[in-house]
Amino acid sequence: MLHAFGLIVETTITPGWSCAGHLKSMFSPHAIPWHLEMLRIFGKAFKIYTWLGLYVTGPLALHHIVIKDQSIFEETTTFIQGNRLAFGHGLLGALGDTHRKQRKILNPVFSNAQMRNFAPIFYSLSYQKIISTSQFTEGNMRPWISKIALEIIGEADFG
């Protein structure tokens, strides 16, 4: 029996750091040339050396993975457990029917029409944050990103 992964090209480029495989190259601050070179050599889908194992950029393949056949491409147990630890048993920590029910409840809130209405609020609050910092500096985003997220949710939901 032929396995689907047998049809996918495997990278011949050795990863720079054996423990992380290609992750260091993929997520480096200067990763764009690496991504473009890999796409040029190997095409829209290929195997890589990481815990992920598969690099996909083809729009049709991504549509099947993320939307049409998502039940076939379920997340790994490790991924779900990590999400549950970080976010609880909500949408990001659920699978199957539970996930589907939660999405059905949330879909109207995140419809295209709603997002169109929220966009000016997002831009306004983001712009205010940028203006409030007198200069561009490198720093920890964590303290203010949660505050601005709460502000955006409050403004978008309650006005």
Automatic annotation (TrEMBL):
Tell me which domain of life the UniProt entry assigns to the organism this sequence originates from.
Eukaryota
Q: Output the Gene Ontology terms for molecular function.
A: heme binding; iron ion binding; monooxygenase activity; oxidoreductase activity, acting on paired donors, with incorporation or reduction of molecular oxygen
Report the InterPro entries cross-referenced here. Answer: Cyt_P450_sf
Look up and give the organism this protein is from.
Pterulicium gracile
What is this protein identified as? Cytochrome P450
